[in-house]
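Hi support team,

I've been running sequence recovery on a batch of backbones for a student project. Most finish fine, but this one hangs at about 90% for roughly twenty minutes before it completes. I'm not sure whether the input is malformed or the queue is just slow. I've pasted the structure tokens below so you can try to reproduce it. Let me know if you need the job ID as well.

Thanks,
M.K.
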């Protein structure tokens, strides 16, 4: 802290969104007094919001969405006059035009859904092609079917002989 104390006030914007961060929001974040924008959304943060967050008086934008944060919203956030708090459970409704560049976008949600659906479609298609590629060839190509069952038969015989030999070794010892 001693080394960076003079330069911490120079940090203006921090975006740690979608980085799979875990644990609690560090209380040391309140030392970034020059911070104008803080985005910690889409992580796996837990615990509570540090009560010292009210020290960030220059804060215009704060995004703590999509976490497992519990506890109350610190009253010190009311000290940040430039931060417009709105939406449930507050009485002040959010005006989308008023939010300007900080408007919430569902574009990333659509990308996540597309990736998720693509994954399931690929998995189903891969299973279908793999299963029928193997089973279909065994059903429709007689030589392959005979060779496959011949291999299974010989594997069964080999395994049986190994088990009998091991069993005999154990009983003789």
């Amino acid at each position: 802290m001693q080394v960076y104390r003079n330069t911490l006030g120079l940090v203006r914007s921090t975006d740690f969104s979608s980085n799979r961060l875990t644990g609690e929001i560090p209380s040391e974040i309140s030392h970034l007094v020059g911070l104008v924008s803080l985005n910690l959304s889409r992580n796996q943060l837990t615990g509570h919001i540090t009560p010292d967050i009210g020290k960030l008086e220059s804060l215009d934008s704060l995004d703590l969405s999509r976490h497992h944060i519990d506890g109350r919203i610190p009253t010190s956030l009311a000290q940040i006059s430039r931060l417009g708090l709105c939406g449930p459970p507050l009485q002040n409704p959010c005006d989308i035009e008023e939010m300007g560049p900080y408007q919430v976008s569902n574009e990333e949600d659509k990308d996540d859904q597309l990736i998720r659906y693509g994954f399931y479609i690929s998995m189903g298609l891969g299973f279908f092609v793999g299963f029928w590629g193997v089973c279909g060839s065994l059903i429709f190509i007689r030589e392959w079917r005979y060779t496959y069952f011949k291999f299974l038969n010989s594997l069964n015989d080999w395994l049986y002989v190994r088990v009998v030999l091991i069993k005999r070794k154990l009983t003789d010892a």
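--
Follow-up from support: It reproduced on our side and the slowdown came from queue contention, not your input. Residues 96-104 have pLDDT under 50 and may be disordered. No action needed from you.
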